[in-house]
Write a structure and sequence with these properties.
The protein is mainly alpha-helical. It has a single domain, classed as Arp2/3 complex 21 kDa subunit ARPC3 (Orthogonal Bundle). Helix content is 75%, strand content 0%. It is built from 7 helices and no strands. Helix 1 packs antiparallel against helix 2, helix 1 runs parallel beside helix 3 and helix 2 runs parallel beside helix 4. The longest helix is centred in the last third of the chain and has 34 residues. The protein starts with a helix and ends with a helix.
C-alpha cells in the first residue's frame, strides 16, 4: 500500500492534464486523452474500490474546480469508475499484463465519457449521434491509446525488478 507513490502519480497526472495534454489535442473539437482517468483506474486495480473511489473523487474535484464548469461531475464519475475498477483488484495480475488493461480502459472510458458528454451537452442542439461520433468515441479511443504507456511502464518495471 504505497499511497504516497499513488498520490505522486495522481499529482503528476493532474499537472500534465492541466498543462501539457492540451497541446496534443486533436481535431477541431479538442479531443485530448484523460490521463487522470487512467491513473485512477490503475490505482483502483492495484489497491481496491475504496482507494479508487477516494483518489477518483479527489482528482475529479480538482479537475472540476480548475475547469470551472459542472462542479462535481468529474468528481462523481471518477469516484464511480474508481470504485468499479477496484472490483477488478482480485484479477490484478491478469489485468495489468499485456493488453487486458487496454480493453478495461476502453470500456470504462466509453461509459465515463458517455455519461459526461450526455450531461455536458444537455440542452444544446447536438444530437446524440453527433456527440457520440464527435466526442465520446474519439476521446475514449485516444485515452485508451495512452493506456499503452501504462502497460509498457508496468511490463518494463516488472522485467527490471524481476517479478
Amino acid at each position: 500500500m504505497n499511497y504516497f507513490r499513488y498520490f505522486i502519480l495522481l499529482l503528476v497526472s493532474l499537472i500534465l492534464q492541466v498543462t501539457i495534454i492540451k497541446f496534443i489535442a486533436v481535431s477541431p473539437f479538442n479531443i485530448a486523452p484523460d490521463i487522470v482517468f487512467l491513473a485512477i483506474i490503475y490505482i483502483a486495480v492495484k489497491e481496491g474500490s475504496l482507494s479508487g473511489s477516494l483518489f477518483g473523487f479527489s482528482a475529479g474535484l480538482f479537475i472540476d474546480i480548475i475547469s470551472g464548469s459542472f462542479v462535481g461531475l468529474c468528481a462523481l464519475l471518477y469516484s464511480i469508475f474508481g470504485f468499479a475498477s477496484g472490483y477488478l483488484k482480485r484479477d490484478e495480475d491478469k489485468l495489468l499484463k499485456k493488453y487486458n488493461f487496454l480493453v478495461i480502459t476502453l470500456i470504462f472510458t466509453l461509459l465515463n465519457f458517455l455519461i459526461y458528454y450526455f450531461i455536458y451537452f444537455q440542452g444544446t442542439s447536438l444530437t446524440f449521434l453527433d456527440i457520440l461520433v464527435r466526442y465520446i468515441i474519439p476521446t475514449s479511443a485516444y485515452t485508451s491509446l495512452f493506456s499503452l504507456f501504462y502497460i509498457f511502464l508496468i511490463i518494463k518495471r516488472k522485467v527490471i525488478s524481476g517479478y
